[in-house]
Structures are given as structure tokens and as C-alpha cells.
Structure of Claudin-11:
Amino acid sequence: MANSCLQLSGFLVSCVGWLGIVIAISTNDWVIMCKYGLNTCKKMDELEAKGPWAECVISTGLYHCYALTQILELPAYIQTTRALMITGSILGLPAVAMVLMSMPCISCGANEPQGSKNKRTVLGGVLVLIVALCGLVSTVWFPIGAHHERGLMSFGFSLYTGWIGSIFSLLGGCILTCCSSDSSPSESRPYQDNNRFYYSKQGGGNPPAAPLSSVMHKLMSKL
């Protein structure tokens, strides 16, 4: 019961983290850049929000974005952020599917062993950890690169969402990977091992010998 609760908790936390990664890569409010003060930049229309896909100009009555389409001319931190975030978003789908198919309430066959479900849970947890690693590297490297390029003023909503998604994915992956225990001994051991355990509890490692009287009776009957 405790293992099922941990598995469900890891699944829900991983789903929230993966959703945060997808929202972060889909939006462009990662960093707010400005060379001067906030009010001065708004008056001069130089306050910009930058993301992996576009740069947006923010002023009092204007919010205009233009896409970053020159792939070969883009800085390395933008290209790396795109690649890592897309990889994390794609890997999150099979990770969530594997964990979902390993739930106790879902069975892929009539007599599916618990060990197969545990293996799927661990594999899904490893994929979720890879998603978290992609998100962490991207959300840390991007603001550093933007600061060195033009001057960073503040963090945006998308960056916070990516941080939260990465942390949730890391937590969910750790729960799924480390807390997935094997099946109970009574289900995984063969019948002979269970008999050996029973006889060892009776006081010996081997089954009890037959009574001496019954052995003598069989010998006399043969004679």
C-alpha cells in the first residue's frame, strides 16, 4: 500500500514537472532586459522580453514580438536551450506513459509479474530525471547567456515556470527510481523456497524425517 502511494505521488509530481517544462519552452517571457532604469526603458521602448524563440518589445501600450529565425546566427546558449528543452518535452511523454502503465490498477496482461511493472517504473523515473536535467541546464544557462550578451534586468514568468517544472521533475524522478521496491517475497519465491522457509521455522533446514515406527512397519511388510 505504501509503495502504491509513493508511486502515485511520484507520477503526479512528474506530470506537474513535465507540464512546467512544456509551458516554459512554449512561451518567451524568460528574461527582461534593459540597459537603463525601468521607467526610462519604457519611455524609450527599449524594455525587452527574450525567450528561446522570440524577442518582444514591451512599452506602455505595445507588446510586439519578432521571431528568432536565423538559426545559424543565434548564440550558442539559445540553440542549446532549444535543443535541451525540446528533448525534455519529448522524453516526458514516454516517461509518463511508462509510469502510468506500471500502476497497480493497470495490467498489461492476465498474469503480468510485479517485477515487470517495477522495471517500467524505474525506467520511467530515469527518463523523468533526464527531463529534469535538461530543464535545469536550460533555465540556468539561458539567463547567464542573456546577461553576458546584453544585460539582464529581471527574470520572467517562463523562467520561473521552467525552474519549478525542473524541480518537480527531479523530485518525481527520485521518488519513482528510488522508492520502487521489488515484489513481496511470497510472490517472487518459488514453491520450494517457501517450503524451505517453512521447515526452517520448524527448527531445521530440512523436512522432518518419517517416524521410526512407520519405517519398521514397511520393512516387515516387505519381508
